[in-house]
Specification:
The chain is an alpha/beta fold. The protein is built from ten helices and eight strands.
Amino acid sequence: MPESETLSLILEKKIIAVVRVAEAAALRECARAAAEGGIKLIGLPATVPGATELVGELRDGSDLCVGISDVVTQEQVGIALAADADFVLSPICDRDLVQRCRDRGLVMIAGSATPTEVVAAARRFPHLIAVFPAGALGGPNYLRVMAKQLPEIPLVASGGVDVDSGPDYLDAGAVAIIVDSGLFPEKLEPETAPIVATRARALIEVCAS
């Protein structure tokens, strides 16, 4: 997906689900269940074995936008490029990582924690800046203060954002949320897929309202 279309989709749909499952088959199942529930933006951790192949599998024949998350090294950017991923999520804002992603047409969402870090990160020109780890920093109230002080910088909530707090982050001023907990059960069971799909539908409905 072209860079501009990916960015527009993120700003339109507002929910990126990062699938934190160690085993590839279970990760595939959870990602597809989230997609069935209506989530169109899926992040796969760079450390998951076979992430390159999984990006293609999930996107094949679907309208999913799939990216690589937890990127902190050039090697992991290489994984995203090899997978032809649509976007990269990073908990840091490294100038060289940002530049390589932008040079290669990858949407980059880079992390920062404090107002000073956010302003410094904005000067490195990632597409979006994630307040990370939002949950540990103070949750929606922290992001609300940040958004009020820095209204010109588009902020994404990341780190400890779940199905319960996600809508509050959007209400606080986040342009999007990265949901990494609460959507996927910690223990995978035969009924996991329908549970994930149901939670995804509920999250989308609550965020829309």
